[in-house]
């Protein structure tokens, strides 16, 4: 029996939802959003800039990671820092692909009020796939075409595949996208946070490109969330939270795309995920406050370039434990040099040995 998807239901794309229930959840989200933006407004320019920088960098990294693609963290941070005119330690040259994804993210969020057009979406798609060292067997900067065949989201081994979703036929993409873009640009009565949730679902259901649909759907949602914030800076990352909840994210998308036009469950999930993103930002802000206080308290201490680089990494979700071997690998120096650097920081009461011990000695920042 052939499954009927949401876009095949009578009335598509006239979505509806439990307005009373969603209105209450939206009210809670708007309250937390205002609380977060209000909290940020009392902090100094430097902390606001650091939060903005961290948010954009994480959004770029995590949106790709949701799709199983891992970008180089240093390259992403360097690209974002250059665009923000920030002077950070350890700047590196970024690959063309990284630069393209960062440019797409900036266009979506820093030019949020610009109309979303077919040409703008095509330019985003080109930026996602402009890696000159790769040969992509897809249409880049165009809607998917006949040569791509059926567009399916599938998992499982060959012969035991499970089809999670089958997108509309390529022949209707242009007309479907015209309706979508007309709604995006002319629907003025709907709250932009709700628009972000609906736009994400709608776009990823049409699946207009051969690849990159999820990342572009999240960029569109970020564009509308930036409109909802009504400020030029970004202080929370929806993609970072979606990555944490990736399994639930895919499950609710699949359930909604196989359901009817009542999208109450999807809206409820999206709004609650956004609430959790706000809470995660609170944790990140506390880390940045600690970082700001740290550099203020140690302004008279001289650090070498390797030490400064590692200290900043420790403030930015350093993966695992800091060891001499990791220090040497990150800084491209010898183990002896790494140990001298570490012992110097222990003497300066910046680092301490991890009390938990283990097969190799590790170190933490002194708090």
What does this structure look like?
With 367 residues, the protein is mainly alpha-helical. It folds into two domains: 6-290, Fido-like domain (Fic-like fold); 301-365, Arc Repressor Mutant, subunit A, CATH 1.10.10.10. The protein has helices at 19-41, 45-66, 73-84, 96-110, 118-128, 173-186, 192-206, 213-229, 238-244, 246-257, 264-297, 305-314, 324-331, 335-347; strands at residues 152-155, 162-166, 351-353, 363-365. The protein has a two-stranded antiparallel sheet with strand order 1-2. A two-stranded antiparallel sheet has the order 3-4. A hairpin with a 6-residue loop joins strand 1 and strand 2. Helix 2 (45-66) packs across helix 3 and helix 4 (96-110) packs parallel to helix 8 (213-229). The longest helix is centred in the C-terminal third of the chain and has 34 residues, at 264-297. It is globular and about 70 Å long. The model has no long low-confidence stretch (mean pLDDT 91).
